[in-house]
Amino acid sequence: VPKKCQKAREHFGTVRTQLASLKTKFPADQYYRFHEHWRFVLQRLVFLAAFVVYLETETLVTREAVAEILGIEADRERGFHLDIEDYLSGVLTLASELARLAVNSVTAGDYSRPLRISTFINELDSGFRLLNLKNDSLRKRYDGLKYDVKKIEEVVYDLSIRGLNKEATGGAGGEK
Hints:
Elements: H1 2-23, H2 31-57, H3 63-70, H4 84-107, H5 113-129, H6 137-161, H7 165-170
Helix pairs in contact: 1-2, 2-3, 2-4, 4-5, 4-6, 5-6
């Protein structure tokens, strides 16, 4: 996993170059006029950066750290920046991918990872519940998070029923 993460980080150099070029294509005060042209790409890049950071550290990457990885600004006032909604959408995509990873981890015989993913996703869900989201695309994406939480809970429950979570929490391989 560390080698794959390192290789992925190398690709972010190309991303930084491309975003630097994009910044020069329109006036800085026209960001939101053209935002729809790159919104999806930025959300996907946030997901990729968040996934790499999660695989490396099992923590949630901050918006500022993602902006640094992408070579753009975190603050709106400083020009081409990472919009907060794009960041949150990317994080929600991370949750969906982690639900898939939990299932695949069990298939690969790693019974401790789903437990750690469950803890992370539950904390993420708690954080999103604190937000007052409008009835827009971000809200709809957030509503999908409950299905990711449920999917991971089912994996953890199955591990518990089969007695495999004892291995995951009691053995040396299950400690964080």
